[in-house]
C-alpha cells in the first residue's frame, strides 16, 4: 500500500530534496509552498492523505495556524518541522496536536524513521472499537474525546496516546519501555523517565479529583490501568 504525504515547505532547495527522498521511499507526495496552498491541497485530497509534514515558518499562514485548522476536525498524523528549537515552541506545537516534531537541520534518515513509526502506529489497529468505557471514564477513538463522570477532559496528544495504550491493555502491567515504544516510538532517544512525567500529567487530569483511582504504579515495573470495563 502506498502512503500519501502532504509536504508543506517553502524553502525550494529543502523541499525538492525531501520530495526526491520521499518518492524514492515509495511515498506519494503533494507539495505545498505556503500555508494557504497547504489547506487547499489538504481539502482536495483529504481522503487519500496519510500524513502531513508541516514546516512552522511559512508565507501567508504559519504552520501552527495550518495545524490548528486541520485539527478542528481531523486527527491525521502531523510532523512539525522547524528551525526553532526553543522548548516553549516545541510544547506549543505538541499541544496544538502535532504528533511529532523535528528540528532543522536533520538527517533524512531521522525523518524517514519518524514517518515509519507514525504510519505503523496508525495502521496497527484499523478495526478496533471506537469507544472504551472503564468505570466512569470514557475514551472515544474517533472523536478523541475523553470524559470522566460528566467532565470533558482535555489531553495533549501524548497524554491521549498514553491513556489509549493503558486502556487497550486494561488490567495488564506495562513497563516503561513498552509505554515508550508504543507512545513515543522505538526511535525515541530521550530519558525513559518521560513516561513517569506524563503519567503524572495524566493522573492530574484523569484521577486526581475523583474518588476511585484508575491508574496505578506497579513498583519497579511500570503502570497499569484497572477498573470495570464495559463493552
Ligand atoms: Ca520555512
TrEMBL record:
The UniProt entry, under InterPro entries, shows: CheY-like_superfamily, OmpR/PhoB-type_DNA-bd, Sig_transdc_resp-reg_C-effctor, Sig_transdc_resp-reg_receiver, WalR-like, WH-like_DNA-bd_sf
OmpR/PhoB-type domain location is: 129-227
Q: What positions does the DNA-binding region cover?
A: 129-227
**UniProt keyword DNA-binding, yes or no:** yes
Response regulatory domain boundaries:
4-119
Q: What are the protein's UniProt keywords?
A: DNA-binding, Phosphoprotein, Transcription, Transcription regulation, Two-component regulatory system
Q: Does the keyword Transcription regulation apply?
A: yes
Q: Which SMART domains match?
A: REC, Trans_reg_C
* SUPFAM superfamilies assigned: C-terminal effector domain of the bipartite response regulators (SSF46894), CheY-like (SSF52172)
An example of a Gene Ontology BP annotation on this entry? regulation of DNA-templated transcription
What GO cellular-component annotations does this UniProt entry give?
Answer: cytosol; protein-DNA complex
Name of the protein in question: DNA-binding response regulator
Q: Give the organism the record lists.
A: Lentilactobacillus rapi
Q: Gene symbol?
A: rrp2
Amino acid at each position: 500500500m502506498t502512503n500519501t504525504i502532504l509536504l508543506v515547505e517553502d524553502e525550494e532547495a529543502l523541499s525538492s530534496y525531501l520530495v526526491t527522498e520521499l518518492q524514492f521511499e515509495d511515498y506519494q507526495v503533494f507539495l505545498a509552498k505556503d500555508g494557504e496552498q497547504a489547506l487547499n491541497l489538504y481539502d482536495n485530497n483529504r481522503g487519500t492523505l496519510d500524513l502531513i509534514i508541516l514546516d512552522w515558518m511559512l508565507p501567508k499562514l504559519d504552520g501552527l495556524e495550518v495545524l490548528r485548522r486541520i485539527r478542528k476536525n481531523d486527527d491525521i498524523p502531523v510532523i512539525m518541522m522547524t528551525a526553532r528549537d526553543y522548548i516553549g515552541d516545541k510544547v506549543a506545537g505538541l499541544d496544538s496536536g502535532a504528533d511529532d516534531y523535528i528540528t532543522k537541520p536533520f538527517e533524512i534518515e531521522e525523518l524517514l524513521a519518524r514517518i515509519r513509526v507514525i504510519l505503523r502506529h496508525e495502521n496497527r489497529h484499523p478495526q478496533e472499537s471506537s469507544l472504551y468505557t472503564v468505570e466512569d471514564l470514557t475514551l472515544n477513538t474517533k472523536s478523541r474525546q475523553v470524559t470522566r463522570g460528566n467532565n470533558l477532559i482535555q489531553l495533549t496528544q501524548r497524554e491521549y496516546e498514553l491513556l489509549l495504550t493503558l486502556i487497550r491493555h486494561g488490567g495488564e502491567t506495562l513497563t516503561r519501555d513498552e509505554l515508550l515504544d508504543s507512545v513515543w516510538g522505538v526511535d525515541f532517544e530521550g530519558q525513559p523517565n518521560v513516561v513517569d512525567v506524563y503519567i503524572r500529567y495524566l493522573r492530574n487530569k484523569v484521577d486526581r479529583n475523583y474518588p476511585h483511582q484508575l491508574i496505578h504504579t506497579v513498583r519497579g515495573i511500570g503502570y497499569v490501568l484497572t477498573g470495570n470495563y464495559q463493552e
